[in-house]
Amino acid sequence: MDKDNRDDFTFAKLSDLKLPVTFRISQLEGTRKAHTYTELLEKPELRFHGVQQSPELSDLYVTCQLVADNKPLTIPFRTSHKAFKKDYTWNEWITLPIRYCDLPLNAQVTFTVWDIAGPRSAIPVGGSTFRLFGKKWSLRRGKHRLLLWPDREADGSIETTTPSKVDTKDEMGRLEKLVKKYERGDMPKSDWLDSMAFRKMAEIHAAETEKSENLFLYIDLPRFDFPVIFSEPEASNVASTSAVLPQPATPALVVQPASFATDAGLWQVVDPDVARENPVEDKHRRLVRSHRSSPYDRELKPNAKIRDELSEILNYAPSQPLTSEEKDLIWKFRFYLTRDRRGLTKFLKSVTWRDPSEVKQAVEELLPQWTEIDTDDALELLGPSTVDSRVRAFAVKQLNRADDDLVQALKFESVASDQRSSRSTSSAISYDDSGLADFLIVRAVRNTILGNRFHWYLMVEIAMEDQIIAKMYGRVVFKFMSKLLESEGGVERRDLMRRQGELVETLAKRARDLRTSKDPRPKKIEKLRAFLADSKNNLASMPPLPLPLNARVQVTGIVAEKSSVFKSNMFPMLLYFQCADGGEYPLIFKDGDDMRQDQLVIQLFTLMDRLLRKENLDLKLSPYDVLATGPSQGMAQFIPSKTIAAIVSEYGTLLNYLRAHYPDEGSVGTFGVEPGVIDTFVKSCAGYCVVTYLLGVGDRHLDNLLLAPDGWSPWHFLH
């Protein structure tokens, strides 16, 4: 055919179709015959079948599954329950978790209609296997009638015994072919004639259904604007050379290897064998790591060069992975490393945990011999990567040497982050593992301050939407309360925690009402003060109660006239608590904001400050207290301070502000400011710059950088 006389054919490539595979299960047509009396007498259990429940229609449902190459590509999906009245019509769309572009050419969908056969049992009414691509590699579309093979489940094999299409010469088969041509636009359309034709077809369809002995399942596939042809993704170099394929090849047309080397448009091919264990490397590892513990292995010591290599490996960061050579080196000198407290975490990373003999030697023989490790290494062993309960028990035993303050500053958020990071896996680490819950509970019962923090940490977690995690934390709460009641003064401590919960709930409800109220800010402040001053609410005066934010502070009430509401989207409340010693403790109570991230950042500030102080470097960091009391509420210590923007606007520069409030004319080296104030300002500024840079804290500008008015306190941050 001449090139100029060819008709244009517009189509779409399957590789460009990024939509999920969808179809609609429409209805079931055909007459189902009930069992005869002879069959019921021979098999009495048949009377429970749904087909016997005449005149009501049985509760049929349809299951479907995508298969290819005799293998399932998805899990089976089923239609939802529906009470049928006159006919079996579902009209339910099914969306499979796979895209069209990912379909293989031989993809099939199996459909099986099921009926009840008794309590918790079902039988197949019929099955059918439907191919998604036609003979010309085009994706099927529109309405399709699938033949159901009676009393059989769709097999989904390549040579299927339940094909959806057979060579039937009935009138409906002929009419359906004409309808498909009409829908594709291959037949001229005439409105008045089409309406008459479709009415006649409906009559023929009803008559054919009455006399047909077959069952048919109707499905609807999406109708695209153009035919979709099966194609696989191509690289850009293949696409660029495809234009010259129809032309006659000439010797001058040679593809140079350099063009492939410089082309970055190559596609990726998934190779499942890459993730599997290389048998050669596995054999090499077994030969290198002989499990026979000879006296030579126990007395083996590294030379100077290897000792330096081991020291460098032991100084790696916890997040740095080890190469296979480094793991083999550590395993070779495992007995020598038992005297080095830094070596345990690296040694456990070098263990092949799928090898039972290697695990037995590592855990049962070497682990008890290891010298005491540092607390930070023990915390690392309690992470989600440690799955052996004996190793976790060893880590908990090492933590018993840590003081309560360190446990409070590090352990809680470390466990929380580890727990959240492992929720997506099937082997989530529970607090019950290796006695970790018991260890924390013992410490919390022993220390009142730590117990208060531990209690509120658990209260936040059990309020989460994840019911599995909430139940796990609920068991820890029950165990904690049981141990608390057994201790001296446990009943009083439990009552104080209950009163704290009532206080937080009252404040949260008031904060929620203020946030959702349409009143202007002055009106909100007026309502808040009236609420706090009302004696019915028991907030203006109360028996001494440890403040949830800081259990060392005993509060006896809230000063209503000093309380206020901030001007922000969440309208947080500023509350001044009256302390038992006569002082005041101001704090901010927020509702509608997740304070757990703030709590973690402040704890990291505290940790870094302790690490710096250990190196005799005091940068005057004094982080304020933050406590999350729920997934979307919490409280933070309020530090009276002034924004840098306000200071610059009023005084011109920070130096003028410091000179005005803390003058020292005799101090030339500090520009006329008290030396202690300048020293605090410079050190805290440097410290917070480094800490916020390491934590990636952004959005720091002059309106949320604060300076305490006493001059001796460092910088603070407005969130």
From TrEMBL:
Keywords: ATP-binding, Kinase, Nucleotide-binding, Transferase. InterPro entries: ARM-type_fold, C2_domain_sf, Kinase-like_dom_sf, PI3-kinase_type3/VPS34_cat, PI3/4_kinase, PI3/4_kinase_cat_dom, PI3/4_kinase_cat_sf, PI3/4_kinase_CS. It catalyses: a 1,2-diacyl-sn-glycero-3-phospho-(1D-myo-inositol) + ATP = a 1,2-diacyl-sn-glycero-3-phospho-(1D-myo-inositol-3-phosphate) + ADP + H(+). GO terms for biological process: autophagosome assembly; endocytosis; phosphatidylinositol-mediated signaling. The keyword Repeat does not apply. One of its GO terms (molecular function) is ATP binding. GO terms for cellular component: endosome; peroxisome; phagophore assembly site; phosphatidylinositol 3-kinase complex, class III, type I; phosphatidylinositol 3-kinase complex, class III, type II. SUPFAM superfamilies: ARM repeat, C2 domain (Calcium/lipid-binding domain, CaLB), Protein kinase-like (PK-like). Its EC number is 2.7.1.137. It holds the Pfam family PI3Ka. Residues 37-185 form the C2 PI3K-type domain. PANTHER family: PHOSPHATIDYLINOSITOL 3-KINASE CATALYTIC SUBUNIT TYPE 3, PHOSPHATIDYLINOSITOL KINASE. Belongs to the PI3/PI4-kinase family. Type III PI4K subfamily. This is Phosphatidylinositol 3-kinase VPS34. It comes from Rhodonia placenta.
